[in-house]
Design brief:
The chain is α/β, with parallel strands linked by helices and about 450 residues long. The chain contains 19 helices and twelve strands.
Amino acid sequence: MAKGISSVAMVEELGRSGMLGFFGAAGLPFSAVETAVDLLTGAGFPCGFNLIHSPQEPDLEKALTGLYIRKGVRLVEASAFLALTLNLVRYRTHGIHRLPDGTIVVPNRIIAKVSREELAEKFFSPPPEKLLQELVAEGAITVEQAELAGQIPLAQDITAEADSGGHTDNRPALALFPTIQSVALRMQSKYGYAVRLRAGLGGGIATPAAAAAAFAMGAAYIMTGSVNQACIESGTSDVVRQMLAETRQADVCMAPAADMFEMGITVQVMKRGTMFPMRAAKLYELYRAHDSLNDIPAAERDKLEKTFFQASLNDIWQNTRSFFLERDPRQVERAERDPKHLMALVFRWYLGQAAHWAKDGDSSRKIDYQVWCGPAMGAFNEWAKGSFLEAPARRTVSTVAMNILFGAAVLTRANILRYQGILLPAETTHAKPLEYTQIKEYLS
Ligand SMILES: Cc1cc2nc3c(=O)[nH]c(=O)nc-3n(C[C@H](O)[C@H](O)[C@H](O)COP(=O)(O)O)c2cc1C
């Protein structure tokens, strides 16, 4: 989860409990990711780092890949890729070699998160020859390494991402997962890899029943997001955690995304207790209807300045301009030539800040909080109702994750008995929340 919402503390807690967490590197300054890498790598527990495709900021994506290679990060979660990039292939093939017995060793692993089968095919295929040759030409890998890379999948594991919090195609898990799983089987037989391709499932999972369903479909593993954000280790504010604890199934909707605003891309967010989705949609509507800030009718502009921005649009532009002069001066050059781009950058200021106001718990801006969240959150709240897990302060990520897994095992057993015709009490369809220590006792 972006901006360190999947925090160092969360990744550490999951790792120490035998689970795998990914640090939320997206949207953070390079130095913050570097600090997290230094804290987490080599600490003796499994962990990984998110690598989000950043078509708007190719230099940042390249710099992060370089960082991960330099610091010996062995696992990345690649997400939002629309096509394979040189960065991905560079990371995956770094250090590839063959043992004397012929085994190919690939030190760097990628778990790709996708919601489309075309992309799953690409990740389950060997890295494209053209990209391998580019790496050979620049001296990043040898000819022999390129030849070895032609025998491995770019990613051995793919997480099928169904309807989720944040960026999502809103695909139903029941339809998506079998498709990605059959791509895995097809690519396994096409390439005859020495390793087995695996498909996991994420999106909508926050209860034992959903996890049991995922495993019943054959998921190799499950992945959660929204419910983790509601846990005490997440890098958000207590006020957001409280709002998440009150979220119900239908309290989420799609809203314009800050990073791909101009393209009309949306993200799934919380709508209860915040006007962000409506305000962001209004900004997109204005962006579509006008060619510049000056074209917006005076009354409308006045309303924006008083309510959404709480400052003059000129001041916001000056602020945005200074930000981009440091981060990406090309944006400023373009905005000064193209007033529609300037308007987009100003509107994106609101969308970007709305996420910070939420994360920082800025009480003066509660009505504008942007909180990425999927329907899984409401499902979890309903399941946890009446138990100790109803209180946000009791939601530790390991307790929540262990309950989902342990509960899935209980439900699966109950289902096996039901399939044999054994009539079970109604409560067996609901695995009750348990304390972490109780689960540990059951398992020992
Ligand atoms: C607050 C939040 C931030 C997220 N940020 C990212 C991100 O930076 N990169 C990414 O690959 N996925 C991101 N996601 C998606 C999650 O990693 C995960 O795929 C998704 O939440 C799983 O679905 P669920 O929300 O139904 O559990 C984010 C999700 C949330 C809720």
